What does this fold into?
Amino acid sequence: MPHGYARRVSLATGSAAALVCTMVLGGTPAQAAPPTPPSAATARTQLAQLTERPQGSQDGYSRDKFPHWSDQGNNCNTREVVLKRDGTNVEQDTKCAAVRGKWVSAYDGATWTQASDLDIDHVVPLSEAWKSGAAQWTTERRRQFANDLTHSQLIAVTDNVNQEKGDKDPAKWLPPKTSYRCMYARMWVNVKHVYGLTADSAEKAALKRILDAC
It folds into this structure.
């Protein structure tokens, strides 16, 4: 199997790594994965509470209406914080750019040692959010959504896998690593629930099938 495959998200451990992470995140210890979403049972409840509505229009959408990546302090922006959080032994330069480390893309199991091979995926894509209610938000609310480190909205993954996903919802795209699909559905539902976004019928049906099999 070629280098770059067979990996899982792992964390930097040990006092030295914890100290570096603390510096990058302004005093908050780093995690090694997105914040854990609620259980499948809770996600099923949250899914049932999502307003079912046909997907809205793309009219007026622009990524610029979701300002990112925001300054997170210590010269770090949101992208660099996620790269640090989701990698192992990540070293950063004075501008907070990751210069070396190891990352395991949860979506496909691929292992990478160059940050340039990774995208930071918005689990619920910005375009999907726009069509699900974010078109009515303030710019500040969209900024919060696009840089959310509190919920399971951001994850470092293989760049071309993220590009293949695009703005597709779970009725049209799921992580190729099948063992991660339950987690992905939990993440998606929780983000939509937290932000009060809607879901169309095909999306809800796909998510229900996944969560029922968790």
Notes: Strands lie at 71-73, 76-77, 87-92, 98-104, 111-112, 118-122, 154-158. The two ends are 29 Å apart (CA to CA). The helical segments are 15-24, 40-49, 78-86, 126-131, 139-146, 159-165, 181-195, 201-212.
